[in-house]
Structure formats: structure tokens, C-alpha cells
Amino acid sequence: MNDKLALPVGTTLDRFIMRKQEEFPFATGELSQLLRDIALAAKIVNREINRAGLLDVTGAYGNQNIQGEEQQKLDVIANIRFIRALRNGGEVCTIISEEEDDVIQTGNHRGKYIVAIDPLDGSSNIDVNVSIGTIFSIYRRKSETGSNGTMEDCLQQGTRQVAAGYVIYGSSTMLVYTTGHGVNGFTYEPSLGEFFLSHPNITTPADGTTYSCNEGNMNSFPEGIQNYVNYCKDQNYSARYIGSLVADFHRNLLKGGIYMYPPTNKAPSGKLRLIYECNALAFIIEQAGGKATTGFKRIMDLQPEELHQRCPLLIGSAKMVDKAEAFLKEVEVEEGIVSK
Ligand SMILES: O=P(O)(O)OC[C@H]1O[C@](O)(COP(=O)(O)O)[C@@H](O)[C@@H]1O
Ligand SMILES: [Mg+2]
Ligand SMILES: [Mg+2]
């Protein structure tokens, strides 16, 4: 029997997490609690976002984050909300956040988990009422409990994620996550204050006809990507680009498609961050049957060297990612370059 039939109509996220935990008799429940903490912070952030236009929380905060990007007020608020929830929850020893230069030690030395988070993704869309999101990755610490998490705990490959997910604050708010046993999506019912299972066992189409990239950067894309974009146009594929990674990813996950953020002149290693943007979405897309690569290497195999490292990203329907990679390879072969 599939999950949809096994679970009663109106399954809340809490109940779903509880049932999943029962399937693993030796699980301690700490990861389940951690997922609940994230869901709670997401509800609070959702409320702030919905009221943003009414309160004084739109616009720039007047500070730059470590990547030299202008922080928005809601970036800062979301960062505070998630950190507070994770600290109070007690399961997390160390947090890596886009909005913090260094790791945050929560003081929970018994906490077994490391969380990497982009508290608010798509900052440029905050003030114009366009979908934005939160992205999170969860790792088990490698070091013994009893002290702070170490840098080695934080710089783990994506293959070591124990869970990952995102929240999309869109026309409805959804939380989508995986613990490595498929992908499930939950829609928020604001009047009840609960996430309900609405998208069980998400799988992504093997192929698609939508491509997503910032074509304003086309002239500085690698030649192989330029050729692939032109191929997409020749095929009359649809171009869809919101400029919020979570929203672009979510659409393509459900409908099929490819999202690309290749290296550009402005961002020679790509713009997106490996630890708290790319790895989480890579884990989800692979669990849904799709692919995520740099164009040459699987994202989740990359060994992070630093907290805010960037990498190129091709992610989505497996056949589309394969095709884009083939275009990149073709240029390399023509130029006699050995694959990186
Ligand atoms: O304007 P660009 O270069 O297309 O960038 C858009 C991309 O940058 C990001 O906004 C980066 O995320 P943050 O808002 O968390 O910094 C992605 O969400 C998005 O896909
Ligand atoms: Mg982001
Ligand atoms: Mg962000």
C-alpha cells in the first residue's frame, strides 16, 4: 500500500513525522523533533512574510552579509527566528547560515546535529510579493557529543545529509522534505496553524520542456550552456525564471524542467552556495528521481572547503541535465580539454 493510502486524509506534518519514526524502532526521535522545530520557525517566518507590507519589515537592513550582498530586513528576521528555534529545540550543536560569517554554536553540546540554512532565499523578491523560500540541510555530527561542533562536522559532503528540505512562501506555503526515503510535501493551513500532507511521494518527471536560468547573463555563460540554451529555444521549450531558487526549483520538481546557474563573469564559480542551497536541493531532486550536477560532477559528491563556497548548479529532470552536460562535454572535446 502506498503512503497516500496508508495515511488518513488530513495527515498533519507532526503525525507524519511520528509515523515515519515508528518505522525505525531504534530512532531516538531527535531528528523528528528537529524537523518539528524547523516547521515551527517556518510558521513564524510565514506570518512575518505575510504581514511584511503592513509592518516596517520590508526593504534593506543596511548591512552586507559575508558574500557582500545587501541584507534585507526579512533576511535578518528569518535568520533570528530559525536560529532561536534550533537553539531552543536542543537537538542542534552548530548552525551554518547564509547570514552569518562564522558558524553559530548553540551551546547544546549534547546536540547530535548540524543544520545549514538559507533562512530566506530570493531576497530580491521580498518587497514585490513574489515567492520566496527557506532551504535547510541536516547532518549528523562526526565529533563526539559533549562539546561544540567542529569545522569537520560542518564541511561534510552532501551525500552525508540525513535530511534536507525547503519551505516555499508562495500562493500557499509549503514545506517539502526528505530523510532519504522519498520526498513529501505539506501545505500550510493558516487558520489551523498546521502543515498537512498534500504531496505524498513526490517524483519528478524524467524529462521536461521548461528551462530556467538568468538569460541576462547568457553572454558570459560557458559556451556549452549557451549552446544548450539555444537548443532549448530550437525545441520551443518554455523559459521560466522567477529569481528565487526555491520557487524555480519547486516548479520544475513538480512539472519537470531544468534550472541552471552556471559560472558567469560576475560569479566565476556560480552564484549559489554549496552547503546551504545546492546540497539540500540536490538531495531532494535525487530522491525524486532527478539529477543535480555542476555540469561535470555530482553536487552531493563535492567536498566543501569553506562554509560559504559557491558552485555551478544544473538541477532537475534527469534527461535534461544529461543533455546540458552533453553540450558542455562537446565543447570540451572540441577544445581538447580533459574533463574537470
Ligand atoms: O539575480 P540572479 O543572479 O538571477 O540571482 C537569483 C538567485 O540568487 C538567489 O537569490 C540567491 O539567494 P539569496 O536570496 O538567499 O541570497 C537565488 O535564490 C536565485 O535563484
Ligand atoms: Mg538563497
Ligand atoms: Mg538567503
From TrEMBL:
<keyword id="KW-0460">Magnesium</keyword>
<feature type="binding site">
    <location>
        <position position="98"/>
    </location>
    <ligand>
        <name>Mg(2+) 1</name>
    </ligand>
</feature>
<keyword id="KW-0963">Cytoplasm</keyword>
<feature type="binding site">
    <location>
        <position position="118"/>
    </location>
    <ligand>
        <name>Mg(2+) 1</name>
    </ligand>
</feature>
<comment type="subunit">
    <text>Homotetramer.</text>
</comment>
<feature type="binding site">
    <location>
        <position position="271"/>
    </location>
    <ligand>
        <name>substrate</name>
    </ligand>
</feature>
<feature type="binding site">
    <location>
        <position position="121"/>
    </location>
    <ligand>
        <name>Mg(2+) 2</name>
    </ligand>
</feature>
<dbReference type="GO" id="GO:0006002">
    <property type="term" value="P:fructose 6-phosphate metabolic process"/>
</dbReference>
<comment type="pathway">
    <text>Carbohydrate biosynthesis.</text>
</comment>
<keyword id="KW-0479">Metal-binding</keyword>
<dbReference type="Pfam" id="PF00316">
    <property type="entry name" value="FBPase"/>
</dbReference>
<feature type="domain" description="Fructose-1-6-bisphosphatase class I N-terminal">
    <location>
        <begin position="12"/>
        <end position="200"/>
    </location>
</feature>
<dbReference type="GO" id="GO:0000287">
    <property type="term" value="F:magnesium ion binding"/>
</dbReference>
<keyword id="KW-0378">Hydrolase</keyword>
<dbReference type="GO" id="GO:0005829">
    <property type="term" value="C:cytosol"/>
</dbReference>
<protein>
    <recommendedName>
        <fullName>Fructose-1,6-bisphosphatase class 1</fullName>
        <ecNumber>3.1.3.11</ecNumber>
    </recommendedName>
</protein>
<feature type="domain" description="Fructose-1-6-bisphosphatase class 1 C-terminal">
    <location>
        <begin position="205"/>
        <end position="328"/>
    </location>
</feature>
<dbReference type="InterPro" id="IPR000146">
    <property type="entry name" value="FBPase_class-1"/>
</dbReference>
<dbReference type="GO" id="GO:0030388">
    <property type="term" value="P:fructose 1,6-bisphosphate metabolic process"/>
</dbReference>
<dbReference type="InterPro" id="IPR028343">
    <property type="entry name" value="FBPtase"/>
</dbReference>
<dbReference type="GO" id="GO:0005986">
    <property type="term" value="P:sucrose biosynthetic process"/>
</dbReference>
<keyword id="KW-0119">Carbohydrate metabolism</keyword>
<feature type="binding site">
    <location>
        <position position="214"/>
    </location>
    <ligand>
        <name>substrate</name>
    </ligand>
</feature>
<dbReference type="Pfam" id="PF18913">
    <property type="entry name" value="FBPase_C"/>
</dbReference>
<feature type="binding site">
    <location>
        <position position="120"/>
    </location>
    <ligand>
        <name>Mg(2+) 1</name>
    </ligand>
</feature>
<dbReference type="GO" id="GO:0006094">
    <property type="term" value="P:gluconeogenesis"/>
</dbReference>
<dbReference type="InterPro" id="IPR044015">
    <property type="entry name" value="FBPase_C_dom"/>
</dbReference>
<comment type="similarity">
    <text>Belongs to the FBPase class 1 family.</text>
</comment>
<dbReference type="GO" id="GO:0006000">
    <property type="term" value="P:fructose metabolic process"/>
</dbReference>
<feature type="binding site">
    <location>
        <begin position="121"/>
        <end position="124"/>
    </location>
    <ligand>
        <name>substrate</name>
    </ligand>
</feature>
<feature type="binding site">
    <location>
        <position position="277"/>
    </location>
    <ligand>
        <name>Mg(2+) 2</name>
    </ligand>
</feature>
<dbReference type="InterPro" id="IPR033391">
    <property type="entry name" value="FBPase_N"/>
</dbReference>
<dbReference type="GO" id="GO:0042132">
    <property type="term" value="F:fructose 1,6-bisphosphate 1-phosphatase activity"/>
</dbReference>
<feature type="binding site">
    <location>
        <position position="118"/>
    </location>
    <ligand>
        <name>Mg(2+) 2</name>
    </ligand>
</feature>
<feature type="binding site">
    <location>
        <position position="241"/>
    </location>
    <ligand>
        <name>substrate</name>
    </ligand>
</feature>
